[in-house]
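User: My instructor asked us to take a sequence, write out its structure as tokens, and then describe one feature of it. I'm not sure where to start. Here is the sequence I was given:
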Amino acid sequence: MTSPDTPALILSPNFRENGRRYFRDFTPGDDFYEALIDMHRDLSDEQSERVNARLILILSNHIGDIGVLREAMRLARGAE
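Assistant: Let's start with the prediction itself. The structure tokens for your sequence are:
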């Protein structure tokens, strides 16, 4: 539930990498998923949870807009 002052979340595929051309829309998302899996490789469950928490905080800080973050949390919980 975004307000007029809060930009809507982008829910369609929006992955890209500067300087790289992709020929299929899903390829950048696949690349991200592979990097995410690699980030967790050889970690214990506890280490993996800590890495996820740090990643969430880093990306949340990058986004910065509390309204957008609240909307993302609402959607992540499935409260559509």
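For the description part of your assignment, you could build on this observation: Residues 47 and 53 are 10 Å apart (CA to CA). Try explaining in your own words what that tells you about the chain.
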